[in-house]
Amino acid sequence: MLKNRCSRLKRFFEEYDLKAVLITDLRNIRYLCGFTGSEGVLLISQDHAWFLCDSRYTAQAEEEVKSAEVRECGVIRIDTVAALASEYGLDRIGFEAAHTTVTAFRRMSEKLTGIELVELGTNLDEIRICKDPAEIECLRTVATLSSLAFTSVLSDIKPGIREVDIALALELEMRRRGAEGKAFDFIVASGERGAMPHGRASEKIVQSGDLVTIDFGALKDGYHSDETVTVACGKPESRALEIHAIVRTAHDLAIDAVRPGISCKDLDEVARSYIRNNGYGDYFGHGLGHGIGLEIHEMPTLSPRSTAVLEEGMVITIEPGIYIPGFGGVRIEDTVVVTVDGCDVITSADKQLLVL
Ligand code: ZN
Ligand code: ZN
Fold first, then answer.
1. Contact residues for 120 (Cβ-Cβ < 8 A; gap 6+)
2. Is 0.85 topped by the overall pTM?
3. Number of domains in the chain
C-alpha cells in the first residue's frame, strides 16, 4: 500500500527530472511512510527511500515506517540529507515549497551545496487527492464516530445553554467514543450569530426561536471528519423554515450530482444556482465544499473558480449555506466518497430541520 503511494511521486520525477524528493510535511510523511511522530524527514530517490529522525523517534519509526530505511541522525538532519545526496549522486532534489519556510529554505540551500533544489509547490499534495481503501475506511470510521457523538448530545441543545457548552459536550462525547481529538474548533452559531459562516462557539446563550448551526468533526488515526447540522431551538420563524428548506434542497441536489467526471465548478453551480434562483444568491458567499483526509481542508476545492474534476476515490464535503446579516443562517454539510457511479454519504446525522 505504501509502495503504491510512493509510486504516485513518479510523475514528479519525470516532470521535473528529479533524482530525489525531500518530504518534510508531516501529513505527506505519514501518508508515504506511515510515521506518525512529530519530527523527521523523508528522502525518496527513484529506487530507495530513507526516513531520517533523531534518537527520540528511532524506536517508533522502526515500528511504523514500512516503506523506507530508518536512519537515526543528529540534531541537524539536513547534514544527513547532504551526506546521502553526495553518496548516491542525488544532485537534483525536489522539495515541498508550499510547506517550507524561507528560513528552512535558506538553510537547505546553504547545506546542500552543489545540489539543485526544485520547488514542487502545493501540487505535490495532489498525491493524496484520491483516497485508497485503507484511507476510506479511516474516513468512514471517524465520520461515523462523529455523527453518533452529535446525535447523542442533541438532547443537551435547548434554550438556556451556552454555545461553548454545546461544543464542550460534543468534544467530550467524541473523546469517549475513541476520537484522538476534535478536527477543528467547532462552530456553534445561534440566532443572529448564524450569519457568520465561521462563528466559533461563544458564550452566547441559545434563545428560544434561534436557529443553531453546529459544524463539527473528529480526528482519529490522523483522519478528519466534517459535518454541519442546523437545528431550531423552539418554534422557528417562517423565514428560518424557508432558508432551511432551500439550503437542504441545494445540498440534496449537489449530492445527487456527485459522480466521477463532473467538474468541481459545475457541481458548485448545481447548489449555487438553486440558491440564486430562490432569491438568496447574495447570501451564499463561500465555496460548496472541499476535500478531506489527513487535513481538514485539502484538494480538491469545490468553488466557482475550481479547475478540478471529480474522480472515484475522492472524499469531499458538500456544504451550501445561506447567511443573512442581522437575521441568522443555515448551513448543511455532509462528507461523501466519490464512487464509480455516484457517491456514498459517510456522515449520518439527520439533516431534516429538527425542532428541539
Ligand atoms: Zn464543516
Ligand atoms: Zn467543511
1. 12, 16, 21, 94, 95, 96, 97, 98
2. yes
3. 2
